[in-house]
Structure formats: structure tokens, C-alpha cells
Amino acid sequence: MSNIPVCGSRHNLNKRMSKYSTTAVTRKRAQFLSSWAEYAQDKSFAGMTLSEFEVKSQAPFDVRKDLADARTKAKGLILKRDKADIALNEELILIAHAIRADQDFGEDCPLYRSLGFVPKSERKTGRPKIAPTAPEEAWGAPSFQTAGFGKGFVALGW
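User: That's the sequence. What structure does it adopt?
Assistant: C-alpha cells below.
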């Protein structure tokens, strides 16, 4: 058997048709239906009549419709999930506030910490203190490295 495809072979036709996009295949189907109806309505090709081909070639369109419906449903479900997440978050906040307000537990208990919150006893307080600077630098007096040489001078350290 030769590796050279015959002009009208099925292999060659599949190779040519595979380069078409979905839109091109849709247009091609319409063209086939129109041409077949115009010039050979009573003739059968590939074991199919025109009406059989029309029914059989409808399957991809049905699948596309099902896919579009599924995408629409998925968008609706995503919105529903997001709203449910917001409602759940509100419930979690209410439970956390209730634990903090409970006399047996409060803000400084293992339960509160295990939920991911920082207990009151472990919280940092206020602003961090800034360490005081050396007095001569605070008053604007020149340091040893730059005395008399201005900005940008680097002392060699001898």
C-alpha cells in the first residue's frame, strides 16, 4: 500500500477538513445542505439521503446548546455559592463574637486561639517604641566620618 494519498481519499479529506474552525464547519454544513438540496435532492451520498444528513449533522448543534445551557447554569451556581459564602462568613463572625462574650470562654481561651484568633494575652500593645539615637546625631552635629568633608564622603578608617 502506498503512502501517497489519492486525491479523493478519505485521509486527504479528513486532513483538509481538520483545519476548519467550528464556525467554518457550521458554514460548510449550511453550504452542503443548500447545494445538496438545490442540485441532488433525491440522490444519496455516503449511504445517506439529504434529510438523514440534516438530522445527523444536527448533533453538534445540540451539544453546543447543551454546553451553553451548562455554562449559564454554572454562572448561576457560582453566584449562589458566593452568596452562601457571604452568609456563612456572617455566621462565623457571630459565633466568634459569642465565644468572646461568653463568661466561660472569652478572648483569652484555647478555643478562641484554635479558631485562628490571637488571644488577648498574646496581642502586641500600641505602637512600637523607637530606640533613641545618639545625642550628637540627634542635635545635627557632624559625625566623625563626615566632619568637614560634606555629604557623600566615606571615611577610609585609618
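The mean pLDDT is 80.
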